[in-house]
Design brief:
Largest sheet of chain B: 2 strands, antiparallel
Number of strands of chain B: 3
Strand content of chain C: under 5%
Order of helices and strands of chain B: HHHHHHHHHHHHHHHHHHEEEHH
Chains: A alpha+beta, B mainly alpha, C mainly alpha
Strand order of the largest sheet of chain B: 2-3
Oligomer: heterotrimer
CATH superfamily of chain C: Cytochrome c oxidase, subunit III, four-helix bundle
Largest interface: A-B, 93 and 91 residues
Distance between the termini of chain B: 62 Å
Number of helices of chain C: 6
CATH topology of chain C: Four Helix Bundle (Hemerythrin (Met), subunit A)
Distance between the termini of chain C: 84 Å
Helix content of chain B: 55-70%
Shape of chain B: globular
Number of strands of chain C: 1
Chain lengths: ~325, ~650, ~200
Amino acid sequence: MRGLHSALDAAGPQAGRIEDLWWIFFSVCTVVFLLVLTALLAAVLHSRREKERHRLPGPERNLTRAVGGATAVTVILLLGLLIASVTTGRAVGSPAPSNSLTLEVVGHQWWWEIHYEDPLPSRRFTTANEIHIPVGLPIRIKTRSSDVIHSFWVPSLHGKRDLIPGYPTETWLQADRPGVFRGQCAEFCGAQHANMALVVVAEPPAEFAAWRSAQLQTPPPPATALQQRGQAVFLAMPCPACHTIAGTSAGGRIGPDLTHLASRSTLAAGTLPNTTGHLAGWILDPQTQKPGNQMPAIALQADDLQALLAYLESLR
Amino acid sequence: MSVAERYEPNAGAEADAEEARRLRETWKSRSGLIGFLTETNHKKIAARYLVTAFVFFILGGLEAFVMRLQLARPEAHVVGPDLYNQIFTVHGSTMMFLFGVPVMEAVGIYLVPLMIGTRNMAFPRLNAYSWYVYLIGGLLLYGAFFLNTGPDAGWFCYVPLAGPEYGPGKRVDVWAQLVTFTELAGLAAAVNQVATILKMRAPGMSLSRMPLFVWATLVASVMTIFAMPAVMAASSLLALDRLVATHFFNPAEGGDALLWQHLFWFFGHPEVYIIFIPALGMVSAILPAFTRRPVFGYNAMVLSIVATGFIGFGLWVHHMFATGLPQLGQSFFTAASMMIAIPSGVQIFCWLATLWSGRLRFAPPLLYVLGFVFIFVLGGLTGVMVASVPLDFQLHDTFFVVAHFHYVLIGGAVFPLLGAIYFWFPKMTGRRMFDRLGKWSFWITFVGFNLTFFPMHQLGLQGMPRRIYTYRAETGWGDLNLLATAGAVILALGLLLYLINVLSSWRGGALAGNDPWGAEGLEWSTTSPPPIYNYQHLPTVSGRAPLWEQGDDQPVVVGLRTDRREFLATRLIDAEPDHRDTLPDDAWAPLATAIATAVTFIGVIFTPWALPAGMILTTIALVGWFWPKRDRPRDWMEEQP
Amino acid sequence: MRPRPRIDVSALETMGFGPRSTLWWGVVSMLAIETTMFALLFATYYYLRGNESIWPPPGGNPPFVPATLCLALLLLSVPPMAIMHRESGNERNLKKMRFWLVVGMAIGLLALGARAAEIAMLPFRWDHHAYGSIVWVTIGMHAIHLLTSGGENILFAVLLFKGPVEDRHLVDLRLNAMYWFVMVVWDVMVYALIYLDPGVLRS
């Protein structure tokens, strides 16, 4: 995932504009810094050796002119940077285009709830911690928090936006090339703030459409006996109190929606890769991986665990 | 005969010795523990403040070191998340509340009366009170921390995380009361400085002849008066939300989570200037001795400090750019945040002009000033970057900001402070610090600092947010973090060498005379260390660089009584002598009042009844403080028929 | 060595009224701090108000009568305190100082009573809603100042009657009067904030 969360590796127009602005600021500031250092060095080298006596200089017109000139240059440079900043700000802060796909991102301690919106209710769905978007389409992001302040940040695509309870806001972003981009919560939100990451997958429109259809579908009843047993285990354990799986009686909203768990690449908001082994470890002992998070340990016999894993892995 | 020695009049040596003896009798502290607890002399209180502040600096540094150890490798297990979150909160709170402001105030408390030619500060008992309250606040924080009840919501303690619902227990309440104690202390010190600087200057020290360090202290004190109430208000409202279920920050009942941020940052931004402006004053005080000329551009320097103070109040929303506030409003704060670079720039340019046209002496104080220019300018430039709203969208709440503020705070405040201590150490202790060790500690600190914090710029750009106790290896942040930790080791070594220098020079350094540096300020005309009464005859001034400009015919003040603690009050603008007044004797009242304050504000963590109970106690203590004493003859007023 | 020229200050008086004294600057700084606190509470009030369409929220308005009575009494207390301030000037008429201080103090005590009644009659608690919180805290903060400056009045009255009164005490007394006047100004602002709120006036 290296390089897939860098503000200097923009994959979308907003991050791109900001990256351009960064290079402008960086260049100007580097030049200024080098000038100041040069002046400092020159002053140090230029001074004649110290004599004991002090002196009380008279009017120093040359120095006054130099200081005045440097100040004037400072003002002009700052003005230029201000203009560049405001221009970029307007560009990245423009309202979402009308053809946007709309998502609502709701922050929780310590995971991301994501609703894909649509005028048609039957085309809406909910997922968690992983966002897929089609390349080249603007994505309108509505932000909300259910508990404390979080911050939604995918550096490759755009700057961050805080999720503040009582303050729903809106921003938009876009990916101009396919890729997997990592994001992370950027506002301290408690014990597991460090482990509240997310994955944004930008894919060609056809693949996105396929992903979306899959997400819209209710999972069929479990096919194999093992998976059926797994579903029974799921419903018998405390799991439905917090989690939802569409098509079953599990409708809990405290934790992430698990309807299409197997389609995601990570677990626990980017904390673990989504593999059988990690999933098993997570279910049995979430507190070791993410101490303080809200999921209790679930004690399971080995065969129940196998069944549950088989069931969960069928939820694509 | 040095300039300083020429200053002490010598006519009638025996009469002078007798006068000095009487002054010592009148101004001296009591002895033993009672003397310690009733102390009101500014030099002694400043010494306590300095020692206390540096103890907290070391503690804060240790916390930082643990953080660096934890972050050096991905998924390390040096400390778990709960302890880490307490550590970074306590680190920030320590550095900002228990070190940054108090240490700058301490230097001012020591120096200002000496620099303006008077005997003590305007309110000596208030001075003592402020140290007690500060100490109690620090003990509260660390006591709680060692009991695993340290605050853990960050030094800026955002709600709702810090509110009653998501911040259970007493951790945040400890933070709120730490703020109460340290802000009370800070406000008391600021009020003291304002009255002292405006009314107790030496005759002839008009405002336009005041040393730049005194100007800086005045501006920082006025800023304190208008900024600290905001954090007092914020922390009090938070304490009320947590303790008695008010709804200031509870969106469900009409409260507002952003209200906290506005109130806090309205204080929080000026706070960093309150720390930084006295350091600018220190730079201006150090340079003349090592460039053999006064600082270039006095008027521009004064205007710059004042402008920085004003503009500093107009920046606070730049901490809130990511919240989704309207763009146009945000751009105003970008403009203001960039604009403040102008007066800072003017100061840098004036100092460069001073260096250019001076004749340099490369002692450690000058090295720290040069180091300051390098580090602070870099930090100021990254500040211009984060002032831009769109750039801040990427940089906010990342390690880029961590790099930025450590550059401006360590470069802009700590480096001048280290230079200042080196510079005034002879005055305070009578001995000089070791030169070779001083230079080594400077270079090691400089290199270590840059190695620690420069990589953090890159880490922020690569997506590393702040306040995370760990990160995964795939993020790619491991190498730069390891480098930063290595730098931290070197930085710690440099600071350790400085500490060793201080401790070993205290008794073992070369004896300094009155004026080891050949400097120009009034404080160098008295002995090292000064007598308890500072000057046998209060000086007068006729220029900005008294020891350089004035001759044997510069008058001194006579006629102040030596049988009571009399001082000279002078006029506001031109410092003409106005009247005499008397300072109180050493007293128990500051300690008693501080204890009453402690009972009030520590009690209130546990029960709201502590507030009325504590107020009654405090009232009793204050009545004892202010009750008129009649232990010496005074001017009586006749009762009229 | 020739003796240095000297400036002899022994003839200067030993106290100064007003901005001449260090204490004046200390008290003014303290008043600036407290005024800033009030200003921040007012800003908080308006900030919270901006979030609501109905303000005050349903459940009763703050009690107009005791608050207005308190304000009126405080304004009434200004002339006596001002006279006391004048009499403590260079003329120093102790009898008049005592009289007018007691008058001002008595009116102040009545005002304190009105304030207490106002608090007791608030129809909402601080924990009902944000409006309740800010109103309680603002009125409460002013009540504390009314209590403190009133308490100082009492202590000064004791001093003026018990004596002996020294010049130095007059500086303190006059500063106490300044505190009182500023406290009254704060009440004007608090009253305007809470009771002249358009939402309150409408109902």
